[in-house]
Write a structure and sequence with these properties.
Layout: E1 3-7, H1 11-25, E2 28-32, H2 35-44, E3 49-53, H3 58-68, E4 79-82, H4 97-108, H5 117-159, H6 170-180, H7 182-219
Parallel strand pairs: 1-2, 1-3, 3-4
Length: 220
């Protein structure tokens, strides 16, 4: 069940709030008379809506809001001022005669000046609906943030810390670097192979020439 916190020191106003919140709004009501009592009630359980008396000083209201600001899970909370509510019907005035009786009945049906309690009950329901929407939006935003953080963690783990990586042998490191650029590695090997074949051909040609020279000397 929704929870409404009301700061209202006026006894008549408090009685009207109790009636409309419990009977029409169908919500639990915590009624306090001061800012200090309201802060204690908030610390005990976060309400869904906070109703503030019009008699609350600006300083007390600022301190109340400053207390709410750092609280976790209080993003949905908003304060609303309690209007001067109509307290009841006009008592019958004394008087006689036919016109006096007619005037008694008409005045008895007229409420005292102030905001109609039934209308304020509807506003409180609107306040509660708005608070519920803010709760849902906040929860969805937190889930999106948790999903983004979960995606970032595997990426950070895949990159790793170079200092924490196990040391590899020099040969393995050279092989890995060769396969990282295979085309360059193959060209280097091809150049080294070409040079070896050329040196082999030169050696064979020098060996044949020396053999021919040796044959000539033996014939002489």
């Amino acid at each position: 069940m929704p929870l409404v916190l009301a700061i209202e020191p006026d006894l008549k106003q408090a009685a009207i709030l109790k009636r409309i919140v419990r009977e029409q709004v169908r919500a639990d009501l915590v009624l306090v008379e001061s800012r200090e009592a309201a802060i204690s009630a908030i610390d005990a359980q976060l309400p869904d809506v906070i109703l503030v008396t019009a008699l609350l000083s600006p300083r007390d209201e600022e301190e109340l809001i400053a207390h709410l600001r750092p609280l976790i899970g209080a993003e949905h909370l908003q304060t609303h001022t309690i209007p001067q509510l109509a307290t009841g019907r006009v008592q019958e005035a004394s008087g006689g005669g036919l016109f006096g009786k007619f005037r008694k009945k008409k005045d008895a049906d007229a409420p005292l000046g102030g905001f109609e309690p039934d209308l304020f009950a509807q506003e409180i329901r609107n306040f509660l609906d708005r608070a519920e929407e803010r709760k849902i939006e906040t929860a969805a935003a937190r889930q999106r943030g948790a999903g983004f953080e979960f995606q970032e963690r595997p990426a950070a783990a895949s990159t790793g810390n170079p200092e924490a990586a196990p040391a590899q042998p020099a040969g393995a490191e050279a092989a890995a670097s060769a396969w990282e650029s295979p085309f360059e590695w193959r060209r280097a090997q091809a150049r080294r192979g070409g040079r070896g074949r050329e040196e082999a051909r030169r050696g064979s040609s020098r060996g044949g020439e020396e053999a021919r020279r040796g044959g000539r000397s033996r014939r002489a």
